[in-house]
Design a protein that fits this description.
Order of helices and strands: HHEEEEEEEHEEEEHEHHHHEEEEH
CATH class of the largest domain: Alpha Beta
Helix content: 25-40%
Number of helices: 9
CATH architecture of the largest domain: 3-Layer(aba) Sandwich
Shape: elongated
Number of domains: 2
CATH topology of the largest domain: Protein Transport Mog1p, Chain A
Strand content: 25-35%
Mean pLDDT: 78
Distance between the termini: 16 Å
Structural class: alpha+beta
Largest sheet: 9 strands, antiparallel
Radius of gyration: 24 Å
């Protein structure tokens, strides 16, 4: 996953950078480079949101068109559930949906539904998560379900939600949910368009409060009355946040992994399975002495809630002066400092948080064995 993310980010940012070269308009060029760096950092965050998506076979993507999205922190104890609780289901990997959907609690579900696999995506303060609950068995080859999606996005407005529905070719009418303007939408499930007897997916979509869009979607045997009751029972808490202790630990381990003053064994202790990279790191530093002296790293944003448990991401800025290093998608000229805004993946191991080996190797190409 780390390699795919690195490649995705690289592709998303390709063409956004260019070197700064000396010339008669050097001052103006320097100002332009500063503006490009600011845009590029935003591009990294945007690319992260576009690429950093962990989907657990939902069979349905609800209320999103390439937007942002989520992980979960319990919003507090749920009120008493008024529908029968499903029988306990073994879920050792933690992939099944829960009644806590990105800080919003589900307090009512139709009788008989069981947890299905959900989805989460996004970055930083733009996050979304879906919890899906399936009806056992299938009718006419189709399984009914109820799904709740929460999207924390401070920039999203109700008008933009309506634009999304049109882009997704949904039919909709304006209604009211929880005293707020909403859309009742209908759309054939794209996964079933090849079948003759297609049951529609229908949903309620609304802005619950500034920065929070909610959607309750379903397919028969669930009814519109069911999704309205699910919607009315939602209890809104706080958006998911990276734990401050994780934030501090991740920032520290990233600084350690890219330090030029820390002993090599300590550098590699910050890298997942890094112990066997000692000779490669020593050779790399000898081949690029400028980088070995001048490399600096700044951690910009840490996100440890969107991904699966034990995984995190951090956007970083690397700065160094070494004309022998060719780092893709980096800003800088042969005579001056080079900077690169990028992202690294992190893994929680028995030793705590460590920089993912694939991310480390992709940035310092030549340290790790080929293949």
């Amino acid at each position: 996953m780390s390699i795919d993310l690195e490649l995705g980010l690289r592709e998303a940012m390709r063409g956004a950078t260019e070197p700064l070269t000396a010339g008669p308009d050097l001052a103006q060029a320097a100002r332009e480079r500063f503006r490009r760096r600011r845009r590029n950092r935003r591009a990294v965050l945007g690319a992260a949101m576009a690429v950093l998506v962990a989907v657990f076979s939902t069979g349905l993507v609800v209320a999103r068109s390439g937007s942002d999205a989520v992980e979960i922190r319990p919003a507090g104890p749920s009120p008493a559930v008024t529908s029968p609780s499903p029988a306990p289901i073994t879920d050792p990997l933690g992939l099944l949906s829960t009644r806590d959907v990105g800080g919003v609690d589900i307090t009512w579900l139709p009788a008989g539904v069981v947890p299905g696999r959900g989805a989460r995506s996004g970055w930083g303060e733009k996050q979304a998560r879906t919890s899906r609950f399936d009806y056992p068995g299938a009718v006419d080859g189709q399984r009914g379900f109820v799904a709740v999606t929460t999207e924390w996005n401070p920039e999203l407005t109700f008008d933009e939600v309506e634009i999304r529905m049109r882009a997704q070719q949904r039919r909709f009418e304006r209604v009211t949910v929880r005293g707020r303007p909403a859309l009742l939408t209908h759309q054939n499930d794209p996964a079933l368009l090849t079948q003759l007897d297609v049951k529609e997916v229908f949903s309620l979509v609304w802005i619950e409060q500034d920065g929070l869009c909610l959607e309750v979607a379903a397919r028969a045997p669930a009814t519109e009355s069911d999704i309205r009751r699910v919607a009315d029972g939602l209890v809104v808490g706080s958006p998911p946040r990276t734990d401050p202790a994780d934030d501090r630990a991740i920032r520290a381990v990233v600084a350690q992994a890219f330090s030029t003053t820390t002993p090599p064994d300590r550098v590699l202790a910050a890298v997942e399975n890094g112990a066997d990279l000692a000779s490669g790191l020593a050779l790399y530093r000898s081949q690029h002495p400028g980088l070995a002296r001048t490399l600096r790293v700044a951690v910009n944003v840490v996100d440890a809630v969107v991904m699966v448990p034990g995984r995190a991401g951090a956007t970083i800025t690397l700065t160094f002066t070494d004309p022998t290093v060719r780092m893709p998608d980096a800003l800088g000229g042969p005579e001056g400092p080079t900077t690169r805004d990028t992202m690294v993946m992190l893994v929680r191991t028995g030793k705590g948080w460590q920089v993912g080996r694939d991310s480390f190797c992709a940035l310092l190409q030549g340290v790790c064995p080929a293949g």
